[in-house]
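Deviations from the work plan: none for this task. Representative record:
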Amino acid sequence: MKENKVPRLAAELRAKIQQGVYPPGSALPKVRDLSESEGVSYQTARDVYEVLRDEGLIISRRGEGTFVSPILGKIHRDGTGRYIKSAREEAGARGAFAAEVARLGMTPGATTEISRERPPKPVAQILGLHHAAKALVRARVMRADATVVQVATSYFPGDVAFGTQLEQQDTGDGGSKSRLAELGYPQVRIRESLDVRTPSKAEAALLGISADGLVYEITHVGLTETGRAVEVCVHVMPITLWSLSYEWPIDQPAV
Amino acid sequence: MKENKVPRLAAELRAKIQQGVYPPGSALPKVRDLSESEGVSYQTARDVYEVLRDEGLIISRRGEGTFVSPILGKIHRDGTGRYIKSAREEAGARGAFAAEVARLGMTPGATTEISRERPPKPVAQILGLHHAAKALVRARVMRADATVVQVATSYFPGDVAFGTQLEQQDTGDGGSKSRLAELGYPQVRIRESLDVRTPSKAEAALLGISADGLVYEITHVGLTETGRAVEVCVHVMPITLWSLSYEWPIDQPAV
DNA sequence: GAGTGGTCTAGACCACAGA
DNA sequence: CTGTGGTCTAGACCACTCG
């Protein structure tokens, strides 16, 4: 039985990180130092770090070094609970994301950029818009402490949202869903589609991950009674930072 | 601007696969041949294939060669629709999985192994079982044509399920949820938790993916009116083969 | 045994960050 | 400029499949 070096060294370092020998945010040995101290080639040492990078345990920055990720646990996103009244209270005025991050003992933060733009094709299709029609776009960058953990971009049809409070920085109490209800578009159903893909270059830069790290892409659609989609939000988040859950009632099978 | 070789060659091959130059299941050039024909080193040629492998487009088998994946599109799993009556009819007697695969024009298949075992710790906890208590275990291996696309293992508490039809190969019309309802444990809510992780060695072998390919792990829990979990099913499926969705009603915010 | 993919090495050079 | 991670090369050897 031949013992492979990369998984063995990765396991050793993984254990040290989890035991706190290298605490979150701290610097790890330079690749060339690891290579020498472990008696392996440069490429092999790099491969060891690549394994841990793909697991979300460490982060490498060219020209700087390799560091333990500041967030080791996973943030839990409850897809359904966030729209139930009791959960809204736990969240307070700050929304579901804030509660999810706070539950990990970290401080949530977000910045929002508002614009009028042509949405990407799949979004335009869901909203039932002309391919050239503009939508209200709210692009949010969300942080836990100083780390960007999610990029979420919401799209609203212009005929519904232009000139309303949805175009202000603060969407007010109850958020976009309450404003849309006031405007005559109450949502009765949510649909979320989920996929895993590689990040775009811009997303990788924002999220501070490598181009071959993976992200969840969650497409959230809010539907009115008539089935019209009045809100689409695309959430992009590193798979290493999040776990997800959904809960819903089912029909009783006849006994 | 320096042009990197791996992404460029990967893009060329990706295009050829998608255009059908290399159809699903066909053999690709051997690594050493690609290396020579493209004028790159062996390692670089391998890296090109690694990129496509991680995307799920190709499969490599040691000692045999490299092949285009037999399944290029994604199978869509609708988490909620599968428990709604109308969807049950589309599925016919065969269940939601069969419908999902058939929708792609492929032939579904499954084999089930039934046993009494101690469930893994997290499952025992959800079911509220002693750490040594046995449960009824139904381990299913699910195929689309000849490809294994999902491994799903269901656990039922022994006091509920031992000696019932749930211990037979065929759980009968309406499946396990109908049988549990008849036994006095109708489920009213489903909770699914979702994560992405690397496969175990056994899972990688079954699913025919490499040890560093990733899988969804979906933990499906069926809850009765009182909140008791009477069914836990752990689904393991390659992220490259599946996309997921959920749909549910929401509370109306006050206007 | 011949042919295949997988791992590792030693070393060159590139791209980027920071003093 | 120095030091860092990232890419690529040429070649050795290992692990596995098939005839």
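The mean pLDDT of chain B is 91.
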